[in-house]
Amino acid sequence: MARLTLAMALLLAACASPSSRIKARQSKFDAFPEAARRKIRGGDIEVGFTPAMVLIALGEPDRKESKSDGRINREVWTYRSPQPSGSLAGGIAMSDPPSKARLPADERARVIFESGLVTDFTTRDR
Questions:
Q1: What is the pLDDT of residue 83?
Q2: Which of 41, 44, 65, 102 is deepest in the core (most CB within 10 A)?
Q3: How far is CA 110 from CA 10, 41, 51, 102, in A?
Q4: What are the residue ranges spanned by the domains of the chain?
Q5: Which CATH number does the domain 2-124 belong to among 1.10.3720.10, 3.30.1450.10, 3.20.20.220, 1.10.3810.10?
Q6: Other CB atoms closer than 10 Å to residue 33's CB: what's the count?
């Protein structure tokens, strides 16, 4: 039983990697600029990425929220941590551009889109 559980965990981890998501969406990935492809292969994102680029780099978010202030429509994607860790609570890594947002202990990333492009994001150290 333990071997079966380990095999299933390894299979699920493999499905959750950027390389497996690239293979599943190879033609879309091949159409991205080379600089974006390099980032995506490493599971990284940057300002200006499209939702499709983020999906391949990070996978499907745990939560999507739409927000509007009447002028600007924003979509916020939240990625949860598999297991919150007390040691991570202070270990926030701000990615380019330096966001001032702090992530709750149970989140590993938050991505903000405006007009279909990433405008800001916050991630934890890996």
A1: 54
A2: 44
A3: 25, 19, 13, 10
A4: 2-124
A5: 3.30.1450.10
A6: 9
Nearest to 53 by CA among 22, 92, 85, 86: 22
- 3-class SS string, the chain: CHHHHHHHHHHHHHHCCHHHHHHHCHHHHHCCCHHHHHHHHCCCCCCCCCHHHHHHHHCCCCEEEEEECCCCEEEEEEEECCCCCHHHCCCEECCCCCCCCCCCCCEEEEEEEECCEEEEEEEECC
| pLDDT < 70 stretches in the chain | 1-15, 83-101, 125-126
pLDDT at 125: 63
The residue length of the chain stands at: 126
**pTM, whole model, 2 decimals?**
0.73
Two structure tokens written together for 123: 């991630």
Angle at 125 between CA 79 and CA 104, to 5 degrees: 45
pLDDT given for residue 2 in this prediction: 53
Residue type at position 3: R
